[in-house]
Amino acid sequence: MSITKRATVLAVGLGMVGGLAACGSSSDGGSQGSGDSKTVTLVSHNSWAASKDVIAAFEKSSGYKVRVLEDGDAGQAVNKAILTKDNPQGDVFFGVDNTLLSRALDNGLFQPYEAKGSDRIRPEYRADQDKHRVTPVTTGDICVNYDKAYFSKHKLTPPDSFDDLIKPEYKDLLVTENAGTSSPGLGFLLGTAAEYGDDGWQDYWKKLKANGVKVVDGWEQAYNEEFSGSSGGKKAKGDRPLVVSYASSPPAEVIYADPQPDTAPTGVATGTCFRQVEYAGLLGNAENTEGGKALLDFLIGKEFQEDMPLNMFVYPVREGARIPEAFRKFGPQAEDPQTMDPAKIAGNRDQWVKSWTSLVLK
User: Fold this and answer.
1) What is the CA radius of gyration of the chain?
2) Per-residue pLDDT tens for 275-321?
3) Cα 142 to Cα 186: distance, rounded to the nearest angstrom
4) Which of 21, 75, 199, 334 is the least buried, fewest Cβ under 10 Å from its Cβ?
């Protein structure tokens, strides 16, 4: 809602893959539950990250020790949580986004709980308001990023819309992720479906394919190997100056550079953005329900919401939460991103991915 731990933390913040477990956490995905009423276990994808002092403050005030189990990328983590829902690995699951939300809800992954402070969450990020099975925690925009140096060198204006990407001057420049295996890849597909409608998105992708779009399995390969504008891509001699990533990718390129540049080396095509929201929920058969509820309250509290951006490179969902200056300067949220009702995603996602795979990969 969506980049890896410094060498890889840059990747974590940028692509919502990779991650840093919190204080007192474990990456042992094989153990079951906490088995201790004073331990609360958070199950997440690999992009989970939080400052140790913020977690320590929660542990001190709540009396619960936090344990984190990282379980692969978002899709893998959601699927595993569903398969183990009768005997869950933990108490709270974080990291199901709006593209996969219906899968979790339809499979009965969560039990109802309205977290304290939910009234401070921005209304546009709320979901499942009648049952309160999930709580919004993060948001971010999946967008095409561009390599400023490439476009300056070639005296070419960077694209700013989906329509631009199919123009001849951008032939063989874009790399995106597989919509069937990658969260940003799926988000980009949904963005085109929102832009062109049920009857138009496939024709758009035919044109995009004819214009030389390259598809790779996941964000890590697309951004850190194929994209010429990222620090990783430069080292890997990537030759694609356009990539599907996040609006928060440019700030990460600045923050982790040494020395830090005055301007970001990459930019965002704001007319290609799709709004992603990530949710957390109390697992249906959690051993420590009270600890789980306390942890959910904490995840939408001001301290965690303000700590989160520079750890996971996503935006807070809480009204009034402070946004880092680097985000405002180098990676502001899109003013008018594409969005889609979760019910529409639920009704079409699997068939769209199947059609996309047949159209683009074969």
Assistant:
1) 20
2) 999 999 999 999 999 999 999 999 999 999 999 999 999 999 999 99
3) 10
4) 199
Residue 28 has pLDDT above 50, yes or no: no
Token reading at 100: 């996969």
C-alpha 187/C-alpha 67 separation (Å) is: 30
pLDDT at 189: 98
SS3 letters for the chain?
CCCCEECEHHHHHHHCCCCCCCCCCCCCCCCCCCCCCCEEEEEECCCCCCCHHHHHHHHHHHCCEEEEEECCCHHHHHHHHHHCCCCCCCCEEEEEECCCHHHHHHCCCEECCCCCCHHHECHHHCCCCCCCCCEEEEEEEEEEEEEHHHHHHCCCCCCCEHHHHCCHHHCCCEEEECCCCCHHHHHHHHHHHHHHCCCCHHHHHHHHHHCCCEEECCHHHHHHHHECCCHHHHHCCCCECEEEEECCHHHHHHHCCCCCCCCCCEEEEEEEEEEEEEEEEEECCCCCHHHHHHHHHHHCCHHHHHHCHHHHCCEECECCCCCCHHHHHHCCCCCCCECCCHHHHHHHHHHHHHHHHHHHCC
Task: Report the mean per-residue pLDDT for the chain.
Answer: 89
| Residue of 144, 97, 94, 159 whose CA lies nearest to 304 | 94
**Where does the pLDDT of residue 131 fall: very low under 50, low under 70, confident under 90, or very high at 90 and above?**
very high
User: What pLDDT, on the 0 to 100 scale, is given for residue 74?
Assistant: 76
- Residue at token pair 């992954």: 109
For tokens 């967008």, the residue is: 143
Query: What size, in residues, is the chain?
Result: 362
**Of 112, 101, 40, which Cα lies nearest the Cα of 69?**
40
Residue entry with tokens 């005055």: 262
> Which amino acid type is present at position 154?
H
The residues near 70 (Cβ < 8 Å, ≥ 6 apart) are 19, 21, 27, 29, 44, 45, 46, 48
